[in-house]
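hiii, so i know i said id send this last week but things got crazy w the move. better late than never?? heres the sequnce for the chain we talked about at the cafe, plus the structure i predicted for it. fair warning i was half asleep when i ran it
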Amino acid sequence: MSEKAKVHVYYGPYDCFGYVTFRDCRLDGIRELLEQNGHEVSFQPIQDRDQVRVIVNGELIYKCNIQDLHFGGDGLLDPRCEEILRAVNSAY
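okay and structure toks below
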């Protein structure tokens, strides 16, 4: 994809210390990495527990367990964030 994409990230609640709720701190790396590469990113909570889904042009291009993402950070050292960036850049 040569132009910059509008990326929709849907995320579900997950268990942390016995409480299942929505937390977006594991999504910081995705936000940082995609915005650094010029993509527009939006986040939307969904009811599917432990899920992260990345949608570009109406198509699901990546999904993973939210707990596989690193907590906080800029996404540079998180292999899942790198996979998401590659998937967004190759989407058409």
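btw The helical segments are 28-36, 79-90. thought thatd interest u
miss u guys!!
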